[in-house]
Structures are given as C-alpha cells and as structure tokens.
Design brief:
Helix content: 25-40%
Low-confidence stretches: none
Distance between the termini: 10 Å
Mean pLDDT: 95
Number of helices: 10
CATH topology of the largest domain: Rossmann fold
CATH architecture of the largest domain: 3-Layer(aba) Sandwich
Strand order of the largest sheet: 2-1-10-11-12
C-alpha cells in the first residue's frame, strides 16, 4: 500500500518570504501537492487568525497548528471523525502567572512583552504593516517578547522555564513564552490518529523553534536562513535548501518527493 505523505511546515521564512511574507511564486506548486493527495499541515508560531488569512490567500482548507504547538485546528479535514479543534495549552494568563511567580524581578525587567508595547513599535519588530498587527497579537496561549539580557541569561531563562513546566522558544525575531509544548509535540499528536507505518513525514523549517519538529520527521528540511547558524545540529540527515523562502520550500519538497519515488 502506498504510504500517505504528510508535510508539517513552518510558515515565516520557510514557506513565506522572510520580509514580504509573499508566496505567490509557489502557490500553484502547493496546490498541485495538495491535489495529488499530500497532506500539508502548517505548524507555526502564528495565531489562528493569521493562518486562516494565509489559507484564504492560498485558496485551500487545511489542518493547522498554531502558536508553537498550542492548539490544532481542522483535524476533521483528515477524517470526519476527528475533532475540529484540539487545545493542548493552558491559557496565556495562567502561564504568565507561573512565570511571574518564579522569576526574579531583575530578570523580568529585561523582558519586553510585545503586548505591552506601542503598535507601531510591534510593527517594526515583526516587519509587518500596522493592519496586520491585530492578527499577529490575537494570541490565546503565548507571549512573544524581546529579551535585553546576555546570552547566558537567556539560556538560564530557557532552562528554568522548562524546570517549572513552561517553555520559552526562540524564533527569528523574538522569544516566546508558552506552555511546555512545541511544534514536535503537536505534530506527534496529529500523527497519533494514524498508523505511523502507513505514513511518511516531511518537516520544513528555518529556525531554532522548528528543530524538534524536524527531528521528529522522516525527512527534515531546513530552508536557507542567513540569520540562523545551522552548525552543530545533531541530525545529520537534514536536507538543506540552496534558495530562501518561498522557492526554497518548493526546492526541498521536490527533492524529498523524488527520494520517496525512487525508494518506493
């Protein structure tokens, strides 16, 4: 029996252009993959409304994972018996309370939550127009922030968060406070509905908060990102794109599909 192919993909800098967030040049290729029976599941730090907006532009209904593994939507598109939504995270209010109760004021003073910043400043940090900020900040599970401490303080922050049952993840532009979840855990939750022997998984990302997801994939793909040092990564089976997003996305998918075709 032919195996089902699942693509779990980051969006910003992986499928979407890093600066313009455009993907029109590969839109027809994505639709071709979908129409051929490949399951494409965006797995992003983006919010629910941001991904819904992306899917509207793409012109497809797809399952998707939001806010670094916090919740899964549209699973029923894979099978009508599956849920429409599955919330994995505690509320962002509960998580911030845990954070505030466990970290010293001197360290907290070095954190600037985006939700406390002026909209114009947030727009500059995210590289988005003002009209897109409302969607980007419509968060239910995570707190993106800027950290003004040292590298060692940042590592200490991340390590302590894990010890107290929450998580701080690092993306291209920001850090993000959330539950003890990540893109990999949400991906594996989706796959738990299936027999893994019947599935081939492709993971596509470009940054630190994608690594667990890629390492849980059969074919881990890293899209070229000049801001991220790929050296020292434990998985030696990574497939690297030569091009940046969005063309890098098509590049790695074509490479993997060719590998699957020749091996099967």
């Amino acid at each position: 029996m032919k195996k089902k192919i699942f693509i779990f993909t980051d969006l910003d800098g992986s499928l979407l252009h890093r600066e313009t967030f455009n993907f029109n040049i590969i839109k027809s290729f994505i639709k071709k993959c979908h129409s051929s029976g490949i399951f494409i599941i965006p797995n992003s730090s983006k919010t629910k409304i941001e991904i819904e907006n992306f899917l509207e532009k793409l012109g497809l209904e797809l399952p998707f994972i939001v806010e670094n593994g916090s919740a899964i939507y549209n699973l029923y598109l894979l099978d009508r018996s599956f849920p429409k939504e599955k919330i994995l995270s505690r509320s962002k209010e509960d998580l911030l309370k845990i954070f505030n109760e466990n970290f010293h004021d001197t360290l907290k003073a070095k954190i600037k939550l985006l939700e406390k910043m002026p909209t114009k400043e947030v727009a500059e940090i995210l590289g988005q127009p003002l009209d897109g900020i409302r969607q980007a900040m419509d968060r239910h599970y995570t707190h993106p922030f800027i950290f003004n401490g040292s590298e060692s303080e940042k590592l200490s922050l991340i390590e302590k968060a894990l010890r107290i049952g929450i998580n701080i993840q690092e993306g291209d532009r920001l850090l993000s406070l959330g539950d003890n979840l990540n893109k990999s855990k949400a991906m594996l939750d989706v796959l738990s509905y299936f027999n893994r022997d019947d599935i081939v998984t492709i993971g596509i990302g470009d940054n630190k908060n994608d690594i667990e997801m890629l390492d849980s994939s059969d074919f881990p793909c890293l899209i070229r990102n000049n801001n991220f040092n790929f050296e020292g990564l434990s998985n030696k089976n990574y497939i690297f794109s030569e091009k940046e997003a969005p063309l890098g996305w098509q590049e790695v998918v074509e490479l993997v599909l060719e590998k699957i075709e020749t091996s099967g």
